Amino acid sequence: MIRAWTLGLILALAACAEQRQVAPEPTPPPAIALNRTQWISTEGGLNAPSIEFIDMRANGYTGCNRFFAQVDQNGPSIRFAGIGTTRRACSPDLMELERNFVSRLEGARFARFEQNALVLLDVNNVEIARFERRE
User: What are the sequence ranges of the domains in the chain?
Assistant: First the structure.
């Protein structure tokens, strides 16, 4: 009798026990192919910064000067290193545009495509720059 009662108690407790389900591994974001692509910023009007990716390098226009950088990309992860610019003097507003653009490149940690746009994201996955594809 005690065995039957103990077995019933164990089965009742097991039925009431919290079922832990293991969450599936999140699917990593898709890799983005940037090699041999050109982009123009959605900010800056006629002086909008632009960027072109060739192999492991990026170059383009800051809104004031030309720039170049080494690109380290692994899937959606991206980093711009060794960013350099030419040293042409521009109006204060264009110099500010350049500083902001270079700062955003330095802060980029991820990239993704959204329709026909390239979006750069910071370490917190917050959008810091958006570009439209140049044909």
Answer: 39-133
